Amino acid sequence: MTDFQLRNTPLLSRVGADRSDHLRTDVDAAIAGWSDAAILRVDGRGQVLVVDGKVVLGDSAALGDTPPDDAVFLGRIESGRHVWAIRAPLAPPEDGVDAKVLDLRRTGVLFDDVSAQLVASATALLNWHDAARFSAYDGAPTRPTKGGWARVNPLTGHEEFPRIDPAVICLVHDGGDRVVLARQRDWPERAFSLLAGFVEAGESFETCVSREIAEEVGLAVRDVRYLGSQPWPFPRSLMVGFHAVADPDQPFSFNDGEITEAAWFTRDEVRAALAAGDWSSAAASDAKLLLPGSISIAREIIESWAERD
C-alpha cells in the first residue's frame, strides 16, 4: 500500500482549551476575567509544574488588578476561567501537593490534552516575546498588545505578530515494507528518525519535501502526500508531516553534512524498535534501532506506517 493516514492526532495538535481569540482585543472582557484568572508559570528553561498530568495553574491575585504587560492570554478552560501565562520562577502549589518540574519537549507525553495545549501555546508565545523586543521592521522598541499575541511600535502603530518557522518532516518508503530512517551527526548511535527541514522563501511544502530529501540523503521522491501537522515551539516551528515514495535502488549521498547515516529498514525492524520504547527508554537495551519519543509527530507517522499490513 502506497498510502496511509495518521492513526491519532499528534499530542501537541490536540485541542483541550478554548483559545477565545476574540477576547484578545476586548480589553474590558480581559480585565473582567482577570480577577479570578488562572496563571501558568513557565520558567526560563521552559519548565512547568505538573500534578497527575495536569499543569499547575496559580491565581492571578498576587500579580495585581490587571494583567502584567508581559503576560500572554491563552484562552479559557472548561470552567470558563481565563488562563494567562508568564515567564517566572515556578511557585509550589498553594495546597501543598507534591508537583513535578517537567518540560514539554522531554515529558509532554505525560500531559493531558488541556495542559499540552496551554504549555505549547505559552512556550511559543513567551519564546517569541523574549526575542522580539525590538521591531524587525525598523529596530524600534515594541510593547505587547492583543493579550500578548502581537507587539506594536508605540510611535508608528506598526504591529508584528508571532513568528512561526514552517518545517516539513517526511517518511520515505518504497511503497511496500521498507522505510528510510536517518541519523543526524550529533545524535547518539542507533538513534534514527524521519527526514526533515525548513521551508524556504517562495517554496511550497511539497517542493520542500523533494528538495530536503535530495539534499540530505540524495534520493529523488515521488507521490508526496500530506499526513498532518504539529506545533513544535522549540523555539517556534510548525512541523508539517508527509510521506513519499522512493526507489530503494538509488544510492544514498549526504550532500549537506547534516545527516551522517541513513538506511532502509523493514516494517518488522521498525515494529521491533517501536516495541522497545524510544530514544531514552531503549538506549540501555541492545536494540539496533532507537526511535523518537511519543511527543513528536515523527513517532506518530512511524507508528501509523508500521501498523499497516
Automatic annotation (TrEMBL):
<dbReference type="InterPro" id="IPR015375">
    <property type="entry name" value="NADH_PPase-like_N"/>
</dbReference>
<protein>
    <recommendedName>
        <fullName>NAD(+) diphosphatase</fullName>
        <ecNumber>3.6.1.22</ecNumber>
    </recommendedName>
</protein>
<dbReference type="Pfam" id="PF09296">
    <property type="entry name" value="NUDIX-like"/>
</dbReference>
<dbReference type="InterPro" id="IPR000086">
    <property type="entry name" value="NUDIX_hydrolase_dom"/>
</dbReference>
<dbReference type="GO" id="GO:0016787">
    <property type="term" value="F:hydrolase activity"/>
</dbReference>
<dbReference type="InterPro" id="IPR020084">
    <property type="entry name" value="NUDIX_hydrolase_CS"/>
</dbReference>
<dbReference type="InterPro" id="IPR049734">
    <property type="entry name" value="NudC-like_C"/>
</dbReference>
<keyword id="KW-0460">Magnesium</keyword>
<dbReference type="Pfam" id="PF00293">
    <property type="entry name" value="NUDIX"/>
</dbReference>
<keyword id="KW-0378">Hydrolase</keyword>
<dbReference type="InterPro" id="IPR015797">
    <property type="entry name" value="NUDIX_hydrolase-like_dom_sf"/>
</dbReference>
<keyword id="KW-0520">NAD</keyword>
<dbReference type="Pfam" id="PF09297">
    <property type="entry name" value="Zn_ribbon_NUD"/>
</dbReference>
<comment type="similarity">
    <text>Belongs to the Nudix hydrolase family. NudC subfamily.</text>
</comment>
<keyword id="KW-0479">Metal-binding</keyword>
<dbReference type="InterPro" id="IPR015376">
    <property type="entry name" value="Znr_NADH_PPase"/>
</dbReference>
<feature type="domain" description="Nudix hydrolase">
    <location>
        <begin position="162"/>
        <end position="287"/>
    </location>
</feature>
<dbReference type="InterPro" id="IPR050241">
    <property type="entry name" value="NAD-cap_RNA_hydrolase_NudC"/>
</dbReference>
